[in-house]
């Protein structure tokens, strides 16, 4: 299942990119993330690994593409497995952020995820409104 969200943020792409790339920030804007820890060494970059708990489910997350300030891809291993590809484009007033989610469920979730799709599609823009607020208040 795929979900795409587009958000305009009144901050430079470099700031948006850095906030996204450090997944420890997710607990500050994504209400579904209860914990996020860096499991590799700093600085954050390609191959950085994180442990995340999303909606009570643990995920091992790795940055697989790191191209500041325009492209970031993360791979999350859990259930469902998930790839999130972020594309950041400068605008006159900040950044356009396009987030492409590719959910790959396993087991019983293969049946349930299509039923949850409308809820997920409604939740993603709400979470990105919180991300936008975090970035703009940090600016």
Could you characterize the architecture of this molecule?
The relative contact order is 0.25. This protein has a single domain, classed as START domain (Alpha-D-Glucose-1,6-Bisphosphate, Chain A, domain 4). The mean pLDDT is about 90. It is globular. It has 3 helices and 7 strands; from the N terminus they run βααββββββα. It has a 7-stranded antiparallel sheet. The chain has about 140 residues and is of the alpha+beta class.
Number of strands: 7
Number of discrete helical segments? 3
Which second-level CATH architecture applies? 2-Layer Sandwich
Quote the distance from N terminus to C terminus.
34 Å
The total domain count is: 1
The CATH class label is Alpha Beta
Major sheet attributes: 7 strands, antiparallel
**Inertia-based shape:** globular
- Can you tell me the CATH superfamily? START domain
Helix content: 25-40%
Write a compact overview of the structure shown.
The chain has 139 residues and is α+β, with helices and mostly antiparallel strands. The chain contains 3 helices and 7 strands, in the order βααββββββα.
Question: What brief labels describe this structure?
Answer:
alpha+beta, 7 strands, Alpha-D-Glucose-1,6-Bisphosphate, Chain A, domain 4, globular, 7-stranded antiparallel beta sheet, 139 residues
Write the layout of secondary structure elements.
Layout: E1 2-9, H1 13-21, H2 26-29, E2 33-38, E3 49-54, E4 57-67, E5 71-77, E6 81-91, E7 94-104, H3 109-138
Antiparallel strand pairs: 1-7, 2-3, 3-4, 4-5, 5-6, 6-7
């Amino acid at each position: 299942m795929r979900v795409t969200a587009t958000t305009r943020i009144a901050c430079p792409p470099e700031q948006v990119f850095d906030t996204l790339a450090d997944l420890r920030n997710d607990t500050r804007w994504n209400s579904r993330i209860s914990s996020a820890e860096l499991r590799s060494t700093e600085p954050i970059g390609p191959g950085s690994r994180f442990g995340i708990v999303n909606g009570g489910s643990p995920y091992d997350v790795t940055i697989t593409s790191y191209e500041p300030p325009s492209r970031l891809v993360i791979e999350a291993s859990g259930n469902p497995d998930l790839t999130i590809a972020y594309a950041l484009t400068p605008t006159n007033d900040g950044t356009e952020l396009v987030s492409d989610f590719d959910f790959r469920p396993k087991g019983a979730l293969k049946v349930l995820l299509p039923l949850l799709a409308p809820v997920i599609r409604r939740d993603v823009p709400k979470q990105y409104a919180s991300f936008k607020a975090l970035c703009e208040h940090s600016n």
